[in-house]
Amino acid sequence: QVQLVESGGGSVKPGGSLRLSCAASGFTFSDYYMSWIRQAPGKGLEWVSYISESGETKYYTDSLKGRFTISRDNAKNSLYLQVSSLRADDTAVYYCARGKAMIGPWGQGTLVTVSS
Amino acid sequence: DIQMTQSPSSLSASVGDGVTITCQASQDISNSLDWYHQKPGKAPKLLIYDASNLETGVPSRFSGSGSGTDFTFTISSLQPEDIGTYYCQQYHNLVTFGGGTKVEI
Fold first, then answer.
1. Fewer CB within a 10 Å sphere, N or C end of chain B?
2. Which residue from A50, A61, A109 is facing B43, i.e. has the nearest CB?
3. Comparing C-alpha atoms, which of B37, B27, B17 is closest to residue B96?
4. In sequence order, what are the residues at sequence separation of 6 or more whose Cβ sits closer than 8 angstroms to the Cβ of residue B98?
5. Whether B87 and A105 lie within 8 Å, measured CB to CB
């Protein structure tokens, strides 16, 4: 079955960096756009970024441009999000998901906590 | 950027009631709208795509309508397992989610 498993979250100090990973299985990874979406504690969903099937085209929400970088390795069926210059308001569960429309399935999420 | 205004932000209804949620886009998005349901502590799940199409396996009590800037999501007969938060999402230009509607029984 289709499965997405995120990893790489954790606790980090303001200004720090993390690399989030998403391992995909159960479908032809290279056939799909992939997205990162985050959810701050008790808040709604916020789209972060998506990447085209080949990895050539990448889009980001305006407020995060320059600090977050999406990438993928189709040979490893993996999606990545490099997050840097982290701030307290970046604290959230980060979800990996298939597609940019009809988004699904979603992974279980990985929690990033930014605190001094 | 396209803004999505969802209402109400929360509602309480009884089992068997009809429930309606609206979503308004800040500009014409045609039918480029999906609806998701997020149960507490879980990842969201797609219910409706392209404004009015039911995702495979989703019960027929869920429906969506609208185009342009105004969209409606309906649960015809609320069930206990329908609690959680519902989100609209546009993909006409990048991606934007509505603020969510928390449904309680």
1. N
2. A109
3. B27
4. A44, B4, B5, B6, B23, B87, B88, B89
5. no
Count of Cβ atoms closer than 10 Å to residue B79 Cβ: 12
State the distance between the two ends of chain B, measured CA to CA, in whole angstroms: 35
**pLDDT, tens only, A74-99:** 999 999 999 999 999 999 999 999 99
Query: Within 10 A of B26 (CB to CB), how many other CB atoms are there?
Result: 13
Residue B1 burial by Cβ neighbours in a 10 Å radius (0-12, 13-18, 19+): exposed
Residue pair A67/A10 in contact by the 8 Å Cβ criterion: no
Q: Give the tens place of pLDDT for each residue, B48-72.
A: 999 999 999 999 999 999 999 999 9
Q: What is the mean pLDDT of residues A41-58?
A: 96
Of A37, A59, A109, the CB nearest to B94: A59
Q: Do residues A33 and A16 touch, judged by C-beta distance below 8 A?
A: no
Residue with tokens 């960096």: A17
CB B96 within 8 A of CB B2: yes
CA distance A92 to B6: 22
